[in-house]
Design a protein that fits this description.
Strand content: 25-35%
Number of helices: 14
Structural class: alpha+beta
Helix content: 25-40%
Radius of gyration: 21 Å
Strand order of the largest sheet: 3-2-1-4-5
Shape: globular
Number of strands: 23
Length: 443
């Protein structure tokens, strides 16, 4: 791959070999992981990140003046970088219509338009889509009024329920509780700015499945599991995700066949029927119950932290996948490739700043292991930056995802935790049990 900073003003048409110049929108560990994977692609000649972080700078020319929610800065970045296409990482610019803006300029983008992005940006929209298309999901009731919510909860005292804000909430808009007072307090706060859904509580285990589509056909990627609770033993408040694994041992074989037959295939058929199909990713957040898989939520982009464990195990060139999607040739690209079969196993551990998820800490200097890391262990940056003197700082929240890649989950966990122990900054912390419940169940 040509270094990202070269030929910043070269034209987009007629470049040698047809290799792509890719602009990645975002600044998290997901975007760092995607940049790492694309840097290994024979189909990519240059990478740019807007705004990027201290980690993406290793593979990309960072464009720090880009704000993914300010579309003129995105269009300016495309022009300055001569990017052929845009990979949109976060959900907020997708919900705001960045793909519509890019399409208006004839710029291919990996992600949905604003209408299809409602599958993530509005839980009310996605629930209605699931129900009218007969796709298995939890029963739910929508509320816009505090009084109606209070009456509903009063009639269900002692029942464990799930209350969700309808709109985007960075992974923190969900409360599971059997306490009506706790649910009502959360609901009052949410209803001050949004609609809420109250869902039945489903028993089972969670599975993250990603489909990729070119708007005509789709493929399924290896299944992942995200650990959303803040503390060991799946306790504490919900977060954006404290770690992840890929693959998920109990999802192998019959479970994934049911997921594809009962959830994935009907969903893509419904998207086509309703004019919601798009080029990009659809994330199926599932609960695997005794009665079968149920959809908890959709995302319209790669998940974080699942992307960080997905990228090392993908059995194909990610740049080739993007190119095939933009050319509507995904079926031909995927022929002969088992896209859902991972190469080995990966386990990721999120290192967070002091106070997360309730509060954000002040920037703190970070000490990382010296020298290049081995190919089987990765440090993906999230909220990091470098001072002019080169000092690395973590800005708080979820700061890093440390990933181990090995032949099995146990070996991957050993590599991830050995590396995590070598990263330190004031107030840093992480869960010590990512993946353990699945490994113990298999032992």
């Amino acid at each position: 791959m040509v270094p990202a900073g070269h030929c910043l003003h070269a034209g987009r048409r007629g470049r040698r070999g047809g290799a792509m110049r890719v602009l990645i929108l975002g600044s998290g560990a997901r975007e760092h992981a995607v940049a790492w994977k694309l840097s290994r692609s024979a189909e990519v000649s240059a990478l740019f990140a807007g705004p990027g972080n201290a980690g993406t700078a290793e593979f990309c020319a960072n464009l720090p003046d880009v704000d993914p929610l300010r579309f003129p800065t995105v269009l300016s970045a495309v022009d300055r970088s001569s990017a052929d296409c845009v990979f949109v990482g976060p959900e907020t610019p997708l919900a705001a219509g960045v793909v519509d803006c890019l399409a208006g300029r004839g710029i291919p983008a990996f992600g949905p338009d604003k209408r299809a992005a409602q599958l993530e940006s509005s839980k009310a929209f996605s629930k209605a889509f699931l129900v009218r298309n007969g796709i298995p999901t939890a029963r739910a009731t929508e509320f816009t009024d505090v009084g109606a919510l209070e009456m509903f909860l009063a009639g269900r005292k002692g029942q464990r329920l799930v209350l969700k804000k309808s709109g985007l909430a960075a992974g923190k808009g969900v409360l599971e509780s059997a306490r009506a007072d706790e649910l009502l307090s959360f609901g009052r706060s949410a209803l001050a700015e949004d609609r809420v859904l109250v869902e039945e509580f489903l028993e089972g285990w969670e599975l993250s499945v990603f489909g990729v589509s070119d708007g005509k056909t789709h493929v399924v990627l290896p299944g992942c599991s995200d650990f959303k609770k803040a503390h060991d033993g799946d306790t504490g408040p919900n977060t954006g995700g404290m770690g992840s694994i890929c693959p998920v041992p109990p999802a192998e074989g019959a479970v994934m066949r049911r997921v594809e037959q009962e959830i994935v295939e009907p969903t893509y058929a419904a998207l086509m029927k309703e004019g919601l199909a798009y080029t990009g990713v659809l994330y199926f957040g599932l609960m695997i119950t005794q009665a079968g898989p149920r959809v908890l939520e959709f995302n319209v982009r790669f998940g974080d932290p699942e992307t960080q464990v997905l990228m090392p195990v993908l059995p194909f060139d990610l740049g080739g996948l993007l190119k095939a999607c933009f050319k509507k040739e995904l079926a031909a690209f995927a022929s002969g490739i088992n896209t859902s079969s991972p190469v080995g196993a990966a386990l990721g551990v999120v290192i967070a700043g002091q106070g997360y998820p309730e509060t954000s800490s002040n920037p703190a200097p970070v000490r990382l292991p010296a020298g290049p890391g081995p190919d089987h262990a990765h440090i993906f940056h999230a909220s990091t930056y470098r001072e002019t003197d080169g000092t690395l700082h973590a800005k708080g929240g979820r700061c890093f995802t440390v990933v181990g890649h090995a032949a099995d989950l146990k070996a991957a966990a050993d590599r991830a935790y050995a590396l995590a122990e070598r990263i330190s900054f004031t107030g840093s912390w992480y869960r010590r049990d990512i993946g353990r419940k699945f490994m113990e169940a298999r032992a």
